[in-house]
Write a structure and sequence with these properties.
alpha+beta, Butyryl-Coa Dehydrogenase, subunit A, domain 1, Butyryl-CoA Dehydrogenase, subunit A, domain 2, Butyryl-CoA Dehydrogenase, subunit A, domain 3, 3 domains, three-stranded mixed sheet, flavoprotein, Acyl-CoA_Oxase/DH_mid-dom_sf, Glutaryl-CoA_DH_mitochondrial, EC 1.3.8.6, AcylCo_DH-like_C
Amino acid sequence: MPTHRTDLLNIESQFSAEELQTRDRIAEFVDRRVRPHIAQWYDEAVLPLELLPEMAELGLFGMHLSGYGCAGRSAVEYGLAMQEMEAGDSGLRTVVSVQGSLAMSAIHKHGSQEQMQQWLPKMAAGEAIGCFALTEPSAGSDPSSMTTRARREGEEWVLNGQKRWIGLASEAQVAIVWAQVADEQAGKDVVRGFVVPTDTAGFTATPITGKLSMRASLQCDIELTDVRLPAEAILPENPGLRGPFSCLSEARYGIAWGAMGAARDAIESALDYSAERMQFGKPLAGYQLTQKKLVDMTLELNKGQLIALNLGRAKDAGTLENHMISVGKLNNCRAAIEICREARTVLGGNGITGDHPPLRHANNLESVRTYEGTDEVHTLILGHQLTGEPAFR
């Protein structure tokens, strides 16, 4: 029998023993360390930094990367881990994504051997935390319009600009900062990445407060004021937007799995509540309308899980195409947020409290649905794939 009641198709049977072992190891961590406290962390808007060393010990940081102390696990194993982390909370899954899929991937994909040797072992061990500074106050879905600039002065780079919604920035030891650089040969600006130690003069990260979503996480504004870096701070490989976009693809892949973890947790909460809550002389689970809600939610969950699994198998086989990731990000975030909202209705008024997870998951998914590409961006990526016509402008 499948581990989860929601697995109507016995999707679990398609995983290897090693994949299930990875899933169960992360699920045990979430059950033991996250679920008992997440309502309080969310209410108090606290990222539990004490969990980060434990997450590193589990091999979650750079889990899908090879070498340099990284775990080198498969894409499917990484996806299963992200599903379990987000079943706990989207904010904690985001920690893994920012550290591994964004900051570490940027160095792993685009860095020099020296940069990789300097940072990746420490980041995999949780001895150094990283952030990925791409989004700006006026440049979200259109990163080509970023205004952060890097100019060369002798043997140094000088960075100036602003970044916004940068996960972990105020706790990070290293930031991957993307900036416009004048390319004299091409006669235009090109986006380049820089490895920026956060103790460099002129680098300031300020946590964003007053969030109504992703409260048990940390996002920041960054100010870059004449930040001076050595010449070798630039990421040498893959200039242009394909540099950060390749990292975003890694993060989007993890989101396709993670969103289904939040959805599954919401459904299981609704199942438990409906079995115990008595109305008009019998449990809510005994009413046709309740069963319809539970069935409709679980069908969408299983569809999304199959999409995520298909992406993972393709990624491991080397056949994954970028538009396929957009299918997973768009469909699974959209489905997950509707599932969590519907699950809340099963819980009635009690569902708006922190005693139950569906509304917390739904609120978090408002952010997950937005970052790493909005619905609109992924719709246009898929529209371009279908028609051959780019319609982004």
